[in-house]
Amino acid sequence: MSQILPYFTDANYINLIDSLNIALETFFGELISLNLNQFVYASNAYAFRRRSDLNKGNITLPFVNLKLKTITEDNTFKNWQYNIEHTGIYIEELGIKVAIRPVMFNYESSFWCTQEEEVHYTMTKLVFHGDDPSTVTWYPQYGCQTFPILGHLAWSGGPTMDTAYTENDWLTKNNIHNISMDFGIRSFVALANTDISIPDTILFKFGVAQFGPDVTQLSQQELYTMVIDHFGQTIGAPVESPIVPPIFP
Questions:
Q1: pTM (predicted TM-score)
Q2: How many Å apart are CA 141 and CA 138, to the nearest integer?
């Protein structure tokens, strides 16, 4: 029997990642004009397989993949304080004390398409946006009270066009273009003796956009499970696909 890991039972752990992932897909969807069902939570190497498994065996371009790779300490804004990390700060809206530490959430991400014009448009939108200190806002929920968290988007070297060609000629032969768009979100992790989740309104809005209108028939718990599976890369048996996904080194 597998052991129950402590993050399932530790009441101090605040899960901010799921709400952040939803906010990132929403942000990039609005920025480069994609629907939420054109995003997959997967690494670059696994992106085409994941897209095929979730899309009835079809890759269907364009789409974006993204995946959280690491969480690292980051005090770029010089906002670390001993008492905030070890004692916490009182948040009046929540009625609780929360201990926080500044970090960088590091994501691997790529945009995939078939037309060079799509690359030019997307690159223009990404580069024009640049680094904005208040770019990404997401909303975890404590009880019935939501609260905003701000994140600073920082590109990891900046978006780069057609980065996969030098590593794999599969893309060239199939007329597929890509933009490498790795990035980080400067924000914080938190600990508090409470239960914080995704707000119901955001959960159902994301569910309809990602899975279709039929999810309105599901219970809140069933839909929450689907969203967690979406970001946890839970998949069944491989789907037969007419296109063989590329394999990157």
A1: 0.72
A2: 10
